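Below is how a single chain appears once it has passed through the pipeline. First comes the sequence as given, then the structure the pipeline wrote out for it. We keep one example in the README because the format questions we get most often are answered faster by looking than by reading.
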Amino acid sequence: MTYGAHCYEGNTPDQLKLAHSQPDKEILFTECTGTIGSQFGPDLNFHTEHLTVGAFNNFASTGAMWNIALDGKGEPRLPGTSSCSNGCRGIVTVNADGTFVLNQEYFALGMASKAIIAKDPNGPTAKRVQTRLTGNRGGDGTLVVGAYVTDRASPKDDLRISTVALNKDSKPVKAAINFRGQLALVTLKPGLTTLSFYVPQSGSINKRAIHRRRHANR
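Resulting structure:
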């Protein structure tokens, strides 16, 4: 059986945990949308906590936004629909003159995609790995973190380990990534950060440490 989840009512992580407690349920996160006029920072937080990190951390195997591209009024829409009081916002807003705006949904999805998409052409996509947050900032909900491992086309190539980290504070937070008994110290700016490093198939961590970093401001 399949459980389909949306983000519009209740707390998504709690609902997904409840669905997971039921026998033989595959969990699909199938819909969420932004609303015209809402603010970038709170939206980035919400989409990360409920969809691009929160859904996968709570047993969902898919995550999707509802609208890819709409105009500045949330059009086109089905006749008679009352969805989104101020109009639904697409991942991209396409203006009448042909210009476009990349919205907060784009950045929430894009930051997570950098961690999940395949490293190699036609290679495997990433798999989620379990994370454990410790310390004051990890325990009080300031940081929301998802982690992924990407297999490689050649078994001789290093695995890619990626993290998507949301810092909900207004100040940078210093954090340490502990992997295979070694530490990488990072400073997470307010907003959303995606970073990757590479490790051999087994053994100690690769000395290249943090390989790539991307950031979306709140």
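The radius of gyration is 18 Å.

See the next section for the split statistics.
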